[in-house]
Design brief:
With 357 residues, the chain is α/β, with parallel strands linked by helices. The chain contains 15 helices and 8 strands. The protein has a single domain, classed as Aldolase class I (TIM Barrel). A 3-stranded parallel beta sheet has the order 7-1-8, covered by helices on one side. It has a 3-stranded parallel beta sheet with strand order 2-3-4, covered by helices on one side. A two-stranded parallel sheet has the order 5-6. The chain is globular, with a radius of gyration of 19 Å.
Length: 357
């Protein structure tokens, strides 16, 4: 079978083409696919260790002008539930995170036209003055938005954020890096080129980032593979991505879910297949994350046999997926138990995938 030849090629360390990756989506032998993805993962990482991080996702505002059809989290300015958190509210959340052993916060929010570069410079400086914490903040669309409303270039924006305390950039807002798809689900958000340019600039400034993919909406498998190709090409250039995190679209309470009658979410099998093919195709990524936040602990655990080597975050707080009606909670003890029960050794890490005690 053609798919077996492709898998054999990947196992031998040869790079597979986008056409071959598309072909792998046709395979029905899930056990073989998982086996190859796992073996490639173990070849890279040598030890039977699965990592995780203790952190918190703080959404500084839910006010947003982009009207993304897949989002149930955002609110318009003036809405009853609209907010911009005060510094003291954010500081309180950071204190709780540190008390629970966290050393990082993920800070993301809506595209709020009132929050220009000086807002973030002030916020980041105050956070860094008060706390010894890693600031993993502002996805590429937020950076593009901030640059535009502040009348700055992306390079100037990144320089100023970096000087104020930005440590790394999350890979959110990638959705699918194909403009035809982006026009359907997030027409007011940054383009594929803009998303990649932010990452390219950040990597050039030695700011590490992650990469993500949100799939299972209006895209096809060719689009998923094109997304993977684009981040693989970027990684070839800079090696600045520390991890790849694919997760399925959550249709609950979203315009996109209603418009397309998406009552059935991506199945666990489709998620695991996409994860395994990502591991096989992305030969220049060391770390792939399990998406237990969207898939739940059981499928999140199965992901460790389909190419994932990281359980992601304890997510002391998560609001965006929750807004779509998907609620899965795991604390550090739960994550360590899942890893141990899977036959691996749990290891706490930081954003750069350095081990921490």
């Amino acid at each position: 079978m053609m798919e077996n030849k492709i898998l054999e090629k990947a196992l031998n360390g040869e790079r597979i083409s986008p056409e071959e990756a598309v072909r792998l989506f046709e395979t029905t032998d899930m056990l073989l696919l998982g086996n190859i993805a796992s073996r490639i993962s173990r070849k890279k990482l040598k030890e039977r260790v699965v990592t995780y991080i203790v952190d918190r996702n703080i959404n500084y505002t839910n006010i947003c002008i982009t009207d993304c059809a897949f989002c149930a989290f955002y609110r318009k300015e003036g809405d009853e539930e609209a907010y911009v958190h005060s510094f003291e509210t954010i500081a309180g959340k950071i204190e709780e995170t540190i008390a629970m052993g966290g050393r990082q916060i993920l800070l993301q929010g809506g595209h709020n036209i009132n929050l220009k570069i000086d807002y973030f410079e002030g916020l980041f400086r105050r956070i860094k003055e008060r706390f010894d914490i890693h600031l993993h903040a502002l996805s590429p669309p937020e950076i593009i938005h901030t640059a535009k409303i502040s009348k700055l270039t992306v390079v100037d924006t990144l320089n100023r954020l970096n000087d104020a305390g930005l440590d790394s950039i999350p890979g959110g807002g990638a959705e699918i890096l194909v403009d035809r798809v982006r026009q359907k689900i997030s027409p007011h958000k940054c383009s594929t080129r803009e998303w990649l340019d932010v990452m390219d600039c950040a990597h050039g400034m030695n700011i590490p980032t992650t990469a993500t993919m949100m799939f299972g909406h209006v895209e096809n498998v060719e689009d998923r593979v094109e997304h993977l190709r684009r981040i693989r090409d970027q990684q070839d250039k800079t090696m600045g991505f520390t991890a790849f995190i694919p997760w399925p679209f959550q249709p609950g309470r979203t315009e996109l879910g209603l418009d397309h009658d998406m009552t059935s979410q991506v199945t666990g099998l489709d998620y695991l297949k996409t994860l395994a093919i990502s591991r096989i195709f992305l030969d220049n990524f060391d770390n792939l994350q399990s998406s237990w936040v969207t898939q739940g602990p059981k499928v999140g655990q199965m992901a460790l046999y389909y190419g994932a080597n990281d359980m992601g975050s304890t997510m002391l707080e998560e609001n965006v997926v929750r807004a779509a009606g998907t609620v899965h909670c795991l604390n550090e003890e739960d994550i360590r138990r899942i890893i141990t029960d899977s036959g691996f050794k749990p290891q706490r890490r930081n954003m750069r995938y350095e081990r921490v005690n």
